[in-house]
């Protein structure tokens, strides 16, 4: 009797056991999934379990991809992938974003999921990313809780910092001028240039130039004008900067030189050294020269060279003075004017000024003649009278020529330069 009851009990127990075991097995899978889904990840401490980390700038497109293809390609190829956004707080609830190719969460059409068929690959695309999209994303094979990956998305602020050339840039004809538009930031900005009117060509013949600098080589007057540089990080509105390029004539870059010398010496006293020039000899010549050099010039340029003594304009020929002008119309352009104080005497002391004037430039030099004239030494004969006769001066002309023979080229040109 007891044995029968015992047998029935054992059978019942066995039945119960197998039943619950089957149930347990079933529930087991579910629980495994549940356990995983409830396992909270500390977002602030992204550790080894992060499979991929993406950083995008706010406004940019974030592309998260998840793939299980590599493991058992044929087996997984027919499974779909789900996407979940993990909660920010440990106690929070995850948000299901997509299952397979179906978007569950659609934030203003910004979230898209892309799943090529026949693959265990899923791409989650978040357009115009916001800072609130940052966080931990999880993808899992749809029927397997333990096959999953975590992806961390970091949406950062975008920024552009630009350091540019000044608004107005000047250059000279024939020079190379570079405009700078140095911009950095995140995402890295692209920089391109156009004329202010984008239908006008850039100096290199194109309409658009990419890069942080725009070099204008061998500038021409027509290169002057407004240029724009655009800074685009594809996230923020495009920033632009205007530059005014002014191309000046080289003429304004003339070099000037002043020199003086005494009739009896080949020694020239140039610029600052003029103050060390020897004193004039009474009755003999003293010569003042003002020169201008230009690398390039406009052939139509007319230069006026004028001499003054104490602000009174001098005649080209007179009893006391002779002015010789010389110009050389080839490269480098050269112009010079020579004042010969023919027979120096006390009355010739004072300030002499030579003034050069063209359409676009004006320059002058003051020559200070304040040293008391000395008397000539015997080889030069007796002191001429303080007011020499014109005839006497004429006979002295060869002497002046001799002085100019120091520079033969000057001398040859000079006779034709007489006017
Ligand atoms: C994996 O995807 C399935 C199907 O969407 C889902 O039911 C399950 O909860 C997911 N697994 C985990 C661990 O989240
Ligand atoms: C996000 O990216 C920014 C900029 O690269 C970085 O400073 C910050 O530490 C990143 N945050 C995380 C959580 O990775
Ligand atoms: C821009 O950067 C270049 C180097 O790439 C530098 O030579 C130039 O001086 C910079 N210009 C400005 C305006 O910062
Ligand atoms: C100007 O640039 C050109 C090439 O762009 C170069 O050949 C030339 O040497 C440069 N001239 C100067 C003065 O730097
Ligand atoms: C003087 O400058 C003006 C304007 O820049 C220019 O048009 C003109 O050709 C220049 N004159 C000479 C002689 O170079």
UniProtKB/TrEMBL annotation:
Keywords assigned by UniProt, alphabetized: Signal
Alphabetical list of SMART domains matching this protein: IG, IGc2
GO cellular component, one term: neuron projection membrane
BP GO terms, sorted: synapse organization
Pfam families, sorted: Ig_3 (PF13927)
Domain Ig-like: 46-156, 174-240, 266-354
Disordered as annotated region, ranges: 375-419
Database matches in Gene3D superfamilies: Immunoglobulins (2.60.40.10)
Record InterPro entries: Ig-like_dom, Ig-like_dom_sf, Ig-like_fold, Ig_sub, Ig_sub2, Zig-8
Keyword Isomerase: no
Biased composition (Basic and acidic residues): 391-405
Biased composition (Pro residues): 375-387
Record's signal peptide: 1-21
PANTHER family on file: DEFECTIVE PROBOSCIS EXTENSION RESPONSE 9, ISOFORM A, DEFECTIVE PROBOSCIS EXTENSION RESPONSE DPR -RELATED
Protein name: DgyrCDS2471
UniProt organism field: Dimorphilus gyrociliatus
